[in-house]
Write a structure and sequence with these properties.
Blueprint (H helix, E strand, L loop, with lengths): L1 E5 L3 H15 L1 H5 L2 E5 L5 H13 L5 E6 L1 H10 L8 E5 L5 H5 L6 H10 L2 E5 L2 E5 L8 E3 L2 E5 H9 L2 H9 L6 H12 L3 E2 L1 E4 L2 E2 L4 E2 L1 E5 L21 E6 L4 H10 L11 E6 L1 E14 L2 E12 L4 E5 L1
Parallel strand pairs: 1-2, 1-3, 3-4, 4-18
Antiparallel strand pairs: 5-18, 6-7, 6-17, 8-13, 8-16, 9-12, 10-11, 10-16, 13-14, 14-15, 16-17
The chain binds adenosine-5'-triphosphate (ATP).
The site of adenosine-5'-triphosphate has 24 residues, from helix 1, helix 3 and helix 4.
Family: Belongs to the diacylglycerol/lipid kinase family.
Keywords: ATP-binding, Kinase, Lipid biosynthesis, Lipid metabolism, Nucleotide-binding, Phospholipid biosynthesis, Phospholipid metabolism, Transferase
Cofactor: Mg(2+)
Length: 309
C-alpha cells in the first residue's frame, strides 16, 4: 500500500493540480494508493504520525506531494519509524530536497517510478534542539538550519502580505533575493559562540551561519557546494560580517556555488554543532522562521529511507 500526503496549498496550488493527474494514472488504483490531504499548517505531521501507528506493517512508502515544508512535517511525524520509506514529488516553490538528492524525474513520471522501481537512499538527516528543549523532544530537519541573515529573510518571505504581492507579480522564484533589499536596511551581524564537534570556533560575529544536510537551500542557492547527503557530517558555512555591497555579491555568486571564493566565507564539516547567543538569533529550519538563544544540531543515529529517481 502507498499512502500519499498532499498539501493542496503547496506551490500556489500546483500540488493539487498534479495530484489530479496522478489520481488518473492507472497505477494509482493498481498499486493500492490512498490519499490524505492537509487542511492546515502542522496537519501533515499529525497525519504521518497516525498513518505510521496504524499502517507501519503494510505501508510500502509515504509519498509527499508538496514542498519541503510538508516533507519536514512528514519526516517529523515519522521520527519513530525511520524505516518507513518516504518519497517527495516536489511541487513547492523551493524544492531544495529534490535538488539535494539529485532527483531527476518530476510529476506523474516520478510517481510511476516510485511505485514501480525506485532508487533507494539511506540518509542521516539532522536533529535540532533549540533553547535546551522542545515540547516534543528533538526535531528533525531535511535540508538546513540557517542562523542570522537567512532567518531574517525567511521571516519576511513568509509574511502573508509579502507573499501575496510576490504571488500577484509572479515573482515567487526570486522571493529571497527580493526580500534581501528590505532586510539589508536594518540587518546587523549576530553575536554568537559556535562549537563544532565540541570545539569552540574563533567566531564572535557572523552575517550568516548555515548548517546543511546537502548542497542547496533557499530555492536553489548552492550554499555548500561540497556537501553530500550520504555523509554522516553536516556542511557548516560561516559568513563573517560583510559590507552590504559584498552581501549582494554573495547572493549573486551563491547560486553558482562561487561564494566560497570570498575571503569572508568559510566552509567546514561537523557531526555536532552548537550555537549560543545573548541576543535572540533569527533562524530558519527547512524554510520556517523563528528565534532562539541556543541551538544544538546533530546527525541522526538511525538512517531514514528515501525513495527517489
Ligand atoms: N491546507 C493547508 N493550508 C495552509 N497551509 C498548509 C496546508 N497544508 C500544509 N500547510 C503548510 O504550508 C507550508 C508550506 O508548504 P510547502 O513547503 O509544502 O509548500 P511551499 O511553501 O509552496 O514550498 P517550499 O517549501 O518548497 O517553498 C507548510 O509549512 C505547511 O505547514
Amino acid at each position: 500500500m502507498y499512502l500519499l500526503i498532499v498539501n493542496p496549498q503547496a506551490g500556489n496550488g500546483r500540488a493539487d493540480r498534479l495530484f489530479e493527474s496522478i489520481q488518473r494514472d492507472p497505477l494509482f488504483k493498481e498499486k493500492n494508493c490512498r490519499t490524505f490531504r492537509t487542511a492546515y499548517k502542522g496537519h501533515a505531521e499529525k497525519l504521518a504520525e497516525q498513518i505510521a501507528e496504524i499502517h507501519h506493517e503494510h505501508v510500502q512508502c509515504i509519498i509527499v506531494v508538496g514542498g519541503d515544508g510538508t516533507l519536514h512535517e512528514v519526516v517529523n511525524g515519522l521520527r519513530h519509524y525511520p524505516a518507513i520509506p518516504v518519497a517527495l514529488i516536489p511541487t513547492g516553490s523551493g524544492n531544495d530536497f529534490s535538488r539535494g538528492i539529485k532527483s531527476k524525474l518530476k510529476g506523474v513520471r516520478l510517481f510511476r517510478k516510485i511505485v514501480q522501481n525506485p532508487k533507494r537512499l539511506s540518509v542521516h538527516i539532522g536533529n535540532y534542539v533549540t533553547n535546551g528543549r522542545y515540547k516534543h523532544g528533538n526535531r528533525l530537519f531535511v535540508n538546513s538550519v540557517g542562523f542570522g541573515l537567512d532567518g531574517a529573510l525567511v521571516e519576511l518571505a513568509n509574511k502573508h502580505q509579502f507573499r501575496k504581492w510576490i504571488k500577484r507579480l509572479h515573482l515567487h522564484p526570486y522571493i529571497y533575493p527580493i526580500a534581501l533589499l528590505p532586510v539589508l536596511r536594518t540587518f546587523e551581524p549576530i553575536n554568537i559562540e559556535i562549537y563544532i564537534d565540541g570545539n569552540k570556533e574563533e567566531t564572535e560575529r557572523a552575517t550568516l551561519v548555515a548548517v546543511t544536510n546537502h548542497a542547496y537551500y533557499g530555492g536553489g542557492m548552492k550554499i555548500a557546494p561540497q556537501a553530500n547527503i550520504k555523509k554522516k557530517r553536516f556542511s557548516v558555512t560561516i559568513i563573517d560580517p560583510l559590507p552590504k555591497w559584498k552581501l549582494i555579491l554573495f547572493f549573486v555568486t551563491v547560486f553558482l556555488g562561487k561564494h566560497t571564493l570570498l575571503k569572508e566565507v568559510r566552509v567546514m564539516e561537523a557531526e555536532t554543532f552548537k550555537i549560543t547567543s545573548k541576543q535572540a538569533i533569527p533562524y530558519q529550519v527547512d524554510g520556517q522562521a523563528s528565534h532562539c538563544f541556543q541551538s544544538v544540531l546533530s546527525k541522526t543515529e538511525k538512517t531514514r529511507m528515501v525513495y527517489w529517481s
